[in-house]
Amino acid sequence: MRLFIGVYPPKEIIDYxxxxxxxxxxxxxxxxxxxxxxxxxxxKFLGETEETKIEDIKNILTEYKNLDLxxxxxxxxxxxxxxxxxxxxGLSGDINNLExxxxxxxxxxxxxxxxxxxxxxxxxxxxxxxxxxxDLNLRLINNIAIQNLSFKIQNxxxxxxxxxxxxxxxxxxx
Length: 174
What we know:
Layout: E1 2-7, H1 11-26, E2 32-33, E3 41-48, H2 54-61, E4 69-81, E5 84-93, H3 95-111, E6 124-129, H4 135-142, E7 150-153, E8 157-162, E9 169-172
Antiparallel strand pairs: 1-3, 1-8, 2-6, 4-5, 4-7, 5-6, 8-9
């Protein structure tokens, strides 16, 4: 089963991020936008995982319940991965603590046999992939004002991702 470890922001943050997606689409910036119900922050992508490892993963995640992280939406930006442009929402606030949790998770999961991330963790919420990108769209993206909305993270979750023709379907396992 295909798994990742992540965080769902509160409903009001998801609603706001979804409104940004709609604003981008209304400006003619097309791509594969994240469905409203799938808006999340990924801490660690696990990929195809044997069901026998799920209990061990859950045991690790018990250490990451009742957190008190304060985050804030800080910016809209993009990056290139291979030939694909991704749009994302950057975060600020308790980023150092979030990075420490992500690094600790990375180490603990490595001990279970998962690949270790070598790139520095950069917290962001991906909102679109395969964007039609040109100079005009870049200017439009740069001119979208982002409200610095704050939210709390209390739990890190184990999420199953089932790929379908209509896009991924996420289910929280723990």
